[in-house]
Design a protein that fits this description.
heterodimer; A: Fumarate Reductase Cytochrome B subunit; 7 helices; disordered N terminus; B: alpha+beta; two-stranded antiparallel sheet; 2 strands
């Protein structure tokens, strides 16, 4: 590694999120906010024509998630997002104040757990939402609400609603961590792509996140 | 304990007057938001305690 005092600044940066990953994150965020707004604002008393905006944004989100899954599985290191034994050990030790914990790889255990939760909720919302498209007329198909019985529709709507409300919890938690001063380097990396080499050395186990 | 909140929405079937579940109750929305706020408060409190414990350990 070059002497840090003489190395140009650009070489001191470690790429954490590529432009494609950042675009995916922020487009997904935009879709999720539009979807939650069109879903819950009318319930909270702000009435407007929400159905078309909602289903079209939902289809865009489904396409984005599909692209993300393909990229993650075939073009990226999906193992970096899998919770392993070291993550479980560190999370268990982490609940004891003052206990020593190891440094994480690219993502820590809580971030992986959060990703898993969001993945479950978003996939549940997308699958139930795509099924709910059967109940509305679109330029591509006519509605056919008889694919399922009333009981099944009830479960589909319940999953869609409960998981959507759970996303409110997840977003509150996500924004909290993004705003915490000790996490600013990660928030910056989702905006500009990089963390500094110093942050990489301070916050990450270099054997678990090889660059 | 009754919080006066239903988990699901129900409707009467037009065929038999039978009650049918039609989705999640949106009365739960404030509870889900409150769960996020509760997590923040718990985490911030924990970080405060953990920070003090780490400081104490360093002093020793």
């Amino acid at each position: 590694m070059a002497d840090s005092s003489s190395t140009p600044d650009v070489q001191q940066k470690v790429l954490r999120h590529t432009l494609a990953d950042r675009l995916y994150h922020w487009l997904m965020a935009l879709c999720v906010f539009v979807l939650l707004g069109t879903a819950f604002l009318p319930i909270l008393g702000i009435k407007f024509e929400w159905v078309d905006i909602h289903w079209m944004t939902g289809v865009v989100l489904a396409a984005l998630v599909l692209v993300h899954i393909v990229r993650a599985l075939f073009f990226q290191d999906w193992r970096s997002m899998v919770i392993d034994g070291a993550d479980i050990r560190d999370m268990a030790r982490g609940v004891v104040p003052g206990a020593e914990t190891g440094k994480p790889g690219k993502y820590n255990g809580l971030q992986k757990l959060f990703h898993l939760g969001v993945a479950i909720f978003v996939l549940g919302i997308i699958v139930s939402g795509l099924l709910m498209l059967l109940k509305i007329d679109t330029p591509f198909w006519r509605r056919n609400p008889y694919w399922f019985g009333n009981d099944t529709w009830g479960y589909i709507y319940a999953v869609h609603g409960l998981f959507a409300m759970a996303m409110v919890t997840m977003i509150v938690i996500h924004i909290y961590f993004a705003l915490r001063p000790d996490e600013w380097h990660l928030t910056r990396s989702m905006l500009r792509g990089w963390i500094t080499r110093k942050e990489y050395q301070e916050h990450h186990d270099q054997s678990r996140w090889k660059i | 304990m009754d919080f006066g909140v239903e988990l699901f929405r129900y409707s009467k079937s037009i065929y038999g007057g039978q009650s049918q579940m039609i989705g999640a109750s949106f009365d739960l929305l404030p509870w889900f938001a409150a769960a996020g706020v509760a997590f923040i408060l718990l985490h911030a409190a924990f970080k405060l305690v953990a920070g003090k414990a780490a400081h104490k350990k360093q002093e020793q």
